[in-house]
Write a structure and sequence with these properties.
The chain is mainly beta and 106 residues long. The protein has one helix and seven strands. A hairpin with a 4-residue loop joins strand 3 and strand 4. The N terminus is likely disordered.
């Protein structure tokens, strides 16, 4: 487990991944912390997307890609063990890559 005062700086120092949530405001993860399903709400409309989960050690844990028919993508995370992850999300209608912290706790 990771315990620190400033989680954003600590995670960036450990993994080299900086959270881009402040500059990527049209993407939201919920619920966070999560249990079985994760929803990614985005403002990009229909189109192809890809995402992957990276653990705090920088290892890729799970990835997928598909085509969104709406502005919400649901992801079954029930197969992942409880823990702290980084979600990396890319949509074809955006030039940016979204990176955010995600906690899975049952």
């Amino acid at each position: 487990r990771l315990y620190c005062q400033n989680i954003s700086d600590a995670c960036e120092n450990l993994t080299g991944i900086k959270s881009e949530t402040s500059s990527f405001r049209n993407v939201k993860l919920y619920p966070n912390p999560g249990k079985e399903l994760l929803f990614i709400q985005h403002g990009f409309g229909q189109g192809r997307y890809s995402f992957f989960f990276r653990d705090i050690h920088g290892r890729d844990i799970f990835s997928s890609q598909g085509t969104s028919e709406s502005n919400v993508i649901d992801i079954d995370v029930s197969m992942l063990p409880d823990g702290f992850y980084f979600l990396i999300f890319k949509h074809e209608n955006s030039t940016k890559i979204y990176v955010d912290k995600y906690v899975l706790r049952r």
